[in-house]
Design brief:
The chain is α+β, with helices and mostly antiparallel strands and about 180 residues long. The chain has 8 helices and 4 strands.
């Protein structure tokens, strides 16, 4: 069976292209995120995996949960996914939509792991340096990871910058063993 992200890709791309053409990226992002959260719920998963429930009824369950944010086109999207038995793909579709949206908006979410809490000044300097290097708007999330010993580990999309003491020690050990 094909990997879920591969199966979800055309749906995410179609949703993105439609939302972009309508100037509704934020609205679609919100709708897809809520639908992804809904279908990730254990109770909803039980409903969606029940063969005794029709695809229409499964769509209605998701639409009832998401009624507050779904516009007419979002409802049609849910119906279409339901008809082909793909409602469970919403988490992958939402994730891929967000990647496409970030690419369009020239933004990137950056996770910074540091051995100690970073000050606002340090975060600002890191954001400026990353913005210059990646040529994108930067959204930073920081986490403390004491196992790094010192320094930082930065995840920006597919890019990983390891400036941690742990990483440098691992490289040194590898060089000494080869």
């Amino acid at each position: 069976m094909a990997e879920l992200s591969t199966v979800a890709r055309p749906y995410a791309k179609a949703a993105f292209e439609y939302a972009f053409s309508q100037g509704q990226l934020a609205e679609w992002s919100n709708m897809l995120s809520l639908a992804a959260t809904a279908v990730s719920d254990k109770a909803v998963q039980n409903v969606l995996s029940n063969p005794g429930i029709s695809q229409q009824q499964k769509a209605e369950v998701v639409l009832d949960i998401c009624a507050a944010v779904m516009n007419e086109n979002g409802k049609n999207f849910v119906q279409t996914l339901s008809e082909v038995g793909r409602l469970s793909l919403f988490p992958q579709i939402a994730a891929q939509f967000e990647v496409l949206k970030a690419e369009q908006e020239k933004t990137v979410e950056v996770e910074i792991f540091s051995a100690y809490e970073l000050t606002n000044e340090q975060q600002t300097k890191l954001a400026q340096a990353l913005q210059k290097r990646l040529n994108r708007e930067i959204k930073i999330q920081t986490q403390v990871d004491k196992s790094l010993i010192g320094g930082v580990l930065i995840h920006a999309g597919d890019t990983v910058i390891d400036g941690s003491v742990r990483g440098k020690l691992a490289k040194l050990a590898e060089a000494m063993n080869s």
